[in-house]
Amino acid sequence: NSTPKIARYKPYYTELEPERTYLWCSCGRGNAQPFCDGSHKGTDFKPVRYKPETKGEEVLFCGCKHTKTPPFCDGSHNDLLEDYPSDDPNSEENCAVPNVRLSSNPRAPLNGGCYVFSPDCAVLEEKGNLKYCSVIGPEFGAIYQSQFYFEANEGHSPFISFGDRDVVLFISEGEVEVTISGHSFIGQLHSGIYIKGNEVFSINNSSGGTVKFLASACPRADKPEWPEEMLNNFDISQPERVVPLDPSQRQGMANRYFQMLVDKSVGSLVVTQFIGHIPLSKAEPHRHLYEEALIILTGKGCMWTENLKTPVTPGDVIFLPRKQIHSLEATNEDGMLVVGTIYPGDNPSINY
């Protein structure tokens, strides 16, 4: 009587009605999932009461009943599975899905506003020793976040700001010194860097080669700003801003794993950055309650939506609108390494 029954592994997406109180089933024995129908009687379980905090609230009620944040899904169902739920890319239905790829356009459009962006095909603007372009933004359908691709040649960059937005950097090629409102850090390859709202940053590239990085601004921004001077407003309450790649920090997710880079541990409360490995497989189609940007670091594969697909290769960026159904397939034997930025959200292991 002390072990809950798994009603199902995936959570239950629910649109809540205002002023209504919900009783979430914690035992898993009920027939009105995810809600209590009294089947817990005679056990140690009790339902969890929840009343919506905002109008039009959307939630994911836990279905596996092993969540540590009841009544909501926290991704614990992944620890109950040996293999992440997958889909057969060679099924008759999937074989009929057409390929989309526009060789002269950096964006390959898929369903529902999803697209794959290839920086190698983009036209870059110039500012000082920087070349850059918009990858994700309001002009391309994003509601919550923006992302910009940068190349930094040798030398000091102009000062960069995104106003009062939180900014997350990811170093995709090379190593660079990053100065944030007067405090300097070393950004190593595949490290995440957090810049708080209203702080200014600059890049010093002394490597002799080109450094590549991506900057995500949350909430979304139309374009970077170029202040004339470096501000001295570094928030010393969060002194650690750089999170390097560290295999000891990996978290398992069935037969996958991920490491959190930028999250609450460095002061970021609503934007989250992670790096993860996808084995040779095609994920079961699923959705998220956040916008997501995925950068392909290693390995090749295919991005699928309802009835379209497109190949992905290292350097490509995938934009996933909120609630857009999708499936990422890794086709290399050794899988695929990706880095993701989700907003608003703090847990990349939750989907429905």
User: Which strand-content bin applies to the residues?
Assistant: 35-45%
**CATH architecture type of the largest domain:** Sandwich
Q: Which percent range fits the helix content?
A: under 10%
Strand order of the largest sheet: 5-6-25-22-27-20-19-18
What spatial form do the alpha-carbon principal axes imply? Answer: globular
- In quaternary terms, these chains amount to single chain
CATH class of the largest domain: Mainly Beta
**Which H/E pattern describes the elements?**
EEEEHEEEEEEEEEEEEEEEEEEEEEEE
DSSP E strands, number: 27
Low-confidence stretches: none
- Number of helical stretches of at least 4 residues: 1
Total separate domains: 3
N-end to C-end Cα span: 28 Å
Mean pLDDT: 96
Radius of gyration: 22 Å
Which class best fits the helix and strand makeup? mainly beta
